[in-house]
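User: Hello! I'm new to structural biology and keep hearing that structure can be predicted from sequence alone. Could you demonstrate with Transporter? Please show me the input and the output so I can see what each looks like.

Assistant: Of course. The first part below is the input, the amino acid sequence of Transporter. The second part is the output, the predicted structure written as tokens.
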Amino acid sequence: MEENNKTNGVDNPSFSTELGDIDNTKNGNGISEKTNGINNPSYQTELGDVENSKKGNSISEKAEIPPDDDNAENRAQWGHGLEFLMSCIAMSVGLGNIWRFPFTAKENGGGAFLIPYIIVLTVIGRPLYYMEMALGQFSSRGNVKMYERLSPVLKFIGFGQLIGSVCVATYYCCLMAITLFYLASSFTSELPWTQCDPAWNEYAAEINRTCISAREVSNESGAEAISSSELYFRREVLRQKDNIDDGIGLPDWRLTLCLLASWLVTFFVSIRGVKSSGKASYFLALFPYVVMITLLIRASTLEGAGDGMYYFIETDWNKLSDASVWYAAVTQCFFSLNVGFGSIIMFSSFNAFSHNINRDALVVTTLDTFTSLLSGSTIFGILGNLAYEMNRHPSEVISGGGTGLAFISYPDAIAKFNVVPWLFAILFFFMLFVLGIGSLAALQSCANTVIQDAFPNFKAWMISAGTAISMFLIGLMYVTPGGQYMLDLVDHFGGTFIIFVFVIFEVCAVLYLYGLENFCTDVEFMTGKKVNVYFRVCWGIIMPVLLIVIFIYFLYSLPTLTYGIHGLEYPTGILAFGWSILGIGILQAIFWLSYYLWANREYPCGKMIRKTFSTKTWAPTGARRTYEWRKYKEDVSAESKLQTGSWISRKLRFVFRGH
């Protein structure tokens, strides 16, 4: 098939057409697409382009309505709408709630962190979650193809999100490997972290600490005590080194096997895409709550637990003026809900077009917040008990922070169970592993969908195997003696920094380049319901402003990264590796921007920019649906033209009144 397109006699690689702009002429098996009678070699017909004639700015009423071919792409769909909801719960309610939220809260003042977190969740988290759901469901495409459909140059946002999701997936599986190690160690009547091992005495002496059993009450002063659970994690599980100036070391063979097992399980969950992961989502989403509630009940009965829980809700109002606390709230919100990673867009792209995503967004974001508060109350109750035994304040318990908070505090609580502690340990670490599988499967599926959309002839299991093997090899650096320091570094640059940057690009592209009114019209057409004032105000004003202000303030006060219990600065080479993650994301954005500007270089400057950032390629899937959508938009546009007043007054009227 030969396809040609030129505009004003000039080849245009980024040419895009609107419904009704094409004069199609068929000759045998060849199709020639022309614009104003001039060939355009780069034109690509998308499914959903409709044969219509154009009169002025309206679609001809006599144009034949295309047949219903909305399923022409044969894109896989969830077996049931509930599978999508359960998959979103399994994805969003995960290690981000159990591991990252309590640690982030502890590092940012405990209760002082809750206020900015809940505010950010309300005005950024939930609106952004709903926006990404709507984008995926409307376009029926993974994140890279979705942004490319919105405007070809915007594919850099999808690739930037892909870099972030791969970074998180590689270290996420490391946490699951550690979980498997603890799970295997729990099949014994005497849990190995409950007693001090004499082999740890030398290390304890080096850091001027005395080991105390997780089951005993300590008479040591606060400056000298260290829990056996903490020493077990650092010396036995991680075999951690305190200084990485000479490198991070070689992978530990035990954790390597656990890492391999974790990826094998994830591979089998995602082997058939949503057809297999959807069925597993019921168990992945519901089982963890049984164990979490049991642990909360146990934690609340421990001595000193009340002090820890009070510290969790106690508020230092001065912390609210610290930009780093607000930045931490935003990044925790992104990490916990999985917004900005492309996985929500990917999951919702497999929905039926009219699925009720407003309900699902409300359920998932509410449940995610509840889970974070549940795990926070549990772990701070345990911290209160540890502080009571060590004669210290809850804020001073566990010197190293990081992933250790979940792998030290929770095991410490389990050690205090008087009845079958090994059974609770097995249940807890199995629950933690299940939570990790739900989130990791979503992150891997995000990469799988990008590849599947680009190469639709590839089999799903081959793509899943390829991504699993690649991420396993990358993840080997996290199971080295210095691996946890690399995890913190990659989490900072790949799991938070780069995601924050591309979320700002995403919000500006959708709400300002494409337009808030256009986006709301799309949502109304898709769901049959008008977008309420809460979402319009958050999308149009609050969310973009807060994101940009918090990010600029954070850059202004960017902290120096440190690692380990001694607070050492990262070696220059390793720190450069972290910055390179962000650099790759920014450079690929510059590349795509330069590429499309160069492709449109024949045009005058103003038109070149307009052509580069044109959103005329945006449309839902299916010829009939595209026709109906354009007709719907035409009717809405005709009504909006009747509005009077200045440009700013019309925009504000739409934000607050919806018309």
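User: So the tokens describe the shape?

Assistant: Right, they're a compact way of writing down the 3D structure. Reading them back into a model, for example: DSSP finds 22 helices and ten strands in the chain.
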